[in-house]
Structure prediction request, 153 residues.
Amino acid sequence: MKNFLNPNDKAEILERLRNVQPDSQRRWGKMTPHQMLCHLCDSFRVAMGEKSVKPAENLFTRTLMKWVALHTPLPWPHGIPTRPEINQQGGGGTPPAGFERDRQELEKLIERYARERRDFEFGAHPYFGRLSDYEWMRFGYLHCDHHLRQFGV
Prediction:
């Protein structure tokens, strides 16, 4: 299963990221392409302990939902609400600045997140709780893939 431990999978995501344009049409949801870049940046910052998010985990999200999301080939469903702290639609998400600047920031965050030797410790996922390194690498890939598919790339 694809994840950021595989350099080819990471390269695929970075290449797809470079194909997102400010006017890319969304297939679902409400975010603009620029907001999506900032949302993904915020998500990586949460994982790396640089942005706080109030946990919303429970037995269902820590077990069945986590297993289905990270350990099956099923695509993620559309419309699952994000945490308010990383919500680009009137929540506490980082506001977009410059499109290219924000894309480059996301690329840097992905590179840092996927490094074998990290300068951070993974925290708990707001829905899934504690994740293994493999699960974090799978989550990073899948979250990017989900939002890139949202914009047809």
User: Anything to note?
Assistant: DSSP finds five helices and no strands in the chain. The chain has one domain: 7-150. The CA atoms of residues 1 and 73 lie 7 Å apart.
